[in-house]
């Protein structure tokens, strides 16, 4: 199915609607992943502990043995990044803006430049800044040591609705334009981010070949082959509590694919994803190409 369907899905991406309408058989990623050894990230330990159920792993924290936990550099989960009132108001403000259909049962609101990942082309397009009602979220990043100096150049609201079978398939965020820190603010609903080691499928996929050009600037060094071997045959589960901040960087960002499984969307979930430029567009050869985007990213417009 290479054509765009009325639901917004295309290619291998599907939702419950098109699976029913076009009789598309969807293999269960959860069933595949549950054949692997499951480890869940304990927010309090800052370590991966045995278990698929992230809620149960958090409850078992007092029984965890730190010397038996598995570290993976590049994960930050900060609970209560938003207050309950802020989360409710942010959802109301986002719902005052139009939503666009997206793939795999999702809806989105995208504020950022036009990008062509395959041709590595960047243009301003209709990007005119961000909604003023979301400005405080970006400003609060400065209170998080890991995010100091983070300059948002794309902000994307994503809605996951269980009645649509919403999910996002395993992927690595593009490495040509989007920088190291992959930031998500959860403003409605609990969910889980699932990580699996990335296995090279085709040359140039995700533009991962460019990482070598700025690897010495990463906040956390990439894992060696021997270190990566520790994660073979394993699936990693990261809790994404309502109102929390999630950041992937270093090895967790570049050496693992991340996904949101359909089964982990049990209620309407809305999150806001934030992206920064790669070093080439911050202080490298393409800095001038990024200037128009940086200029627009300073604007926060009022919703009428």
Automatic annotation (TrEMBL):
<dbReference type="InterPro" id="IPR032857">
    <property type="entry name" value="ALKBH4"/>
</dbReference>
<dbReference type="GO" id="GO:0070988">
    <property type="term" value="P:demethylation"/>
</dbReference>
<dbReference type="GO" id="GO:0051213">
    <property type="term" value="F:dioxygenase activity"/>
</dbReference>
<keyword id="KW-0223">Dioxygenase</keyword>
<protein>
    <submittedName>
        <fullName>Alpha-ketoglutarate-dependent dioxygenase alkB homolog 4</fullName>
    </submittedName>
</protein>
<dbReference type="InterPro" id="IPR037151">
    <property type="entry name" value="AlkB-like_sf"/>
</dbReference>
<keyword id="KW-0560">Oxidoreductase</keyword>
<dbReference type="GO" id="GO:0032451">
    <property type="term" value="F:demethylase activity"/>
</dbReference>
